[in-house]
Design goal:
The chain is mainly alpha-helical. Helices cover 65% and strands 0% of the residues. It has 6 helices and no strands. α4 crosses α5.
């Protein structure tokens, strides 16, 4: 596949287990072709289209880089990374395919998480984890007590 393709014949077919319910919006989204979303006058001129692609790539790269920096820091790192991928997906087929795969996997995970057995298991594991943490905190406080990190002499 050409990453700069604007062929309307290149579409993906949703698999049976993709989680779509077959509404008109889902069908329209799946029938939308892969490739460039640049305006027609930009696609008509090769150099302008190439510079458009470079600009989209640089902006997407900057957004993804900010997201990667925010992963270990407080901030919405993954959200920003996916926003950068969405910027790339306006122009590049590979990014469109990655986003479609990611959306499908997130939908499957959300449906799996709503299964009553999985929810019950997750609630049980969370409760056990909280009990273990509370017991550890209780043991620590009984041995060492609460010691303030500063000394205030009165």
């Amino acid at each position: 596949m050409n990453t700069g393709s604007d062929e309307t014949g290149e579409t993906t077919v949703a698999s049976g287990g993709s989680g779509t319910d077959g509404t008109a919006a889902d069908r329209a989204r799946d029938e939308r072709g892969l490739g460039s979303r640049a305006p027609e006058f930009v696609r008509a001129r090769r150099m302008l289209h190439l510079s458009w692609q470079v600009g989209v790539f640089v902006i997407g790269l900057a957004v993804v880089a900010v997201g990667v920096v925010l992963l270990p820091l407080p901030g919405p790192g993954w959200v920003i990374i996916f926003a950068g991928m969405a910027i790339w997906a306006t122009e590049f087929v590979w990014a469109q395919l990655v986003l479609r795969w990611t959306k499908r996997k997130v939908t499957e995970a959300a449906q799996k998480a709503l299964d009553p057995r999985v929810r019950r298991r997750n609630i049980t594991l969370t409760t056990i984890g909280l009990v273990v943490v509370a017991a550890g905190a209780g043991v620590y406080l009984s041995r060492f007590g609460i010691v303030m990190p500063w000394r205030i002499e009165e």
